[in-house]
Amino acid sequence: QVQLQQWGAGLLKPSETLSLTCGVYGESLSGYSWSWIRQSPGRGLEWIGEIHYSGSTTYSPSLKSRVTMSIDTSKDQFSLKLSSVTAADTAVYYCARNSTEYLFDFWGQGTLVTVSS
Amino acid sequence: QSVLTQPPSASGTPGQRVTISCSGNTSNIGTYYVYWYQQLPGAAPKLLIYRDNQRPSGVPDRFSGSKSGTSASLAISGLRSEDEADYFCAAWHDSLSGRWVFGGGTKLTVL
């Protein structure tokens, strides 16, 4: 059974960079794309972007200028960096798997990221 | 303001059939598959329906999806107390730069 486990800093100050990593267990990264999604009371569920196991990326247009995703197939991990955060970036961040047939069929446990001075 | 529109709430009594709608346009639901998710309190969303009306293994056949034009629906029959959760629809949105979009979510209450 595939499991996604994510980790990273939960409290940031404005202008800092959010950094999260998602480890994939029970399945190789190969053959799939891997997404980051966030959820907040004000914005609901918001797709941030995805990275293919080959390393190609697709980012949400609204966040593209601040997002960087990377992947390490040797460690079965992928990561998210979001620069210049503000209070509006406060949310629960999830990692999730995409396949050609399913969409977001496995999710990480979620990480609450709070941006506050 | 979500790209896909869902009613904020729905309710039903045990055993009833409930439907939740998801409205979009030709840039999303009208052209691409719809997916549905169930989110229990404090948990990550769980894939319930994929490709408009397909159930992943393990999802009871009480859950069914349909689509017509630019709208989609999730139906839950034989409602149970454990179905009380938030439900979200999702689809690809093809604009100048495509992205996955979600509905605002529907809170289902089992009375």
Description of the molecule:
The complex is a heterodimer of chains A (117) and B (111). With 117 residues, chain A is an all-beta fold. Chain A is 0% helix and 54% strand. In chain A, strands 2, 4, 5, 6, 9, 10 and 11 form a seven-stranded mixed sheet that branches. A four-stranded antiparallel sheet of chain A has the order 1-3-8-7, with no helix packed on it. The mean pLDDT of chain A is 95. In chain B, the strands form two sheets. In chain B, strands 1, 3, 4, 7, 8 and 9 form a six-stranded mixed sheet that branches. In chain B, strands 2-6-5 form a three-stranded antiparallel sheet, with no helix packed on it. In chain B, strand 5 and strand 6 form a beta hairpin. The termini of chain B are far apart. Chain B is built from no helices and nine strands. Chains A and B meet through strand 5 of A and strand 8 of B.
Based on the model shown, name its key terms.
heterodimer, A: mainly beta, 0% helix, B: 111 residues, mainly beta
Summarize the amount of helix of chain A as a percent range. under 10%
Give a count of the beta strands of chain A, DSSP E runs of length 2 or more. Answer: 11
Q: Structural class of the helices, strands and pairings of chain B?
A: mainly beta
Number of strands of chain B: 9
Low-confidence stretches of chain B: none
Instruction: Estimate what percentage of residues of chain B fall within beta strands.
Output: over 45%
Radius of gyration of chain B (Å): 13 Å
Shape of chain B: globular
Q: What overall geometry of chain A do the principal axes of the alpha carbons give?
A: globular
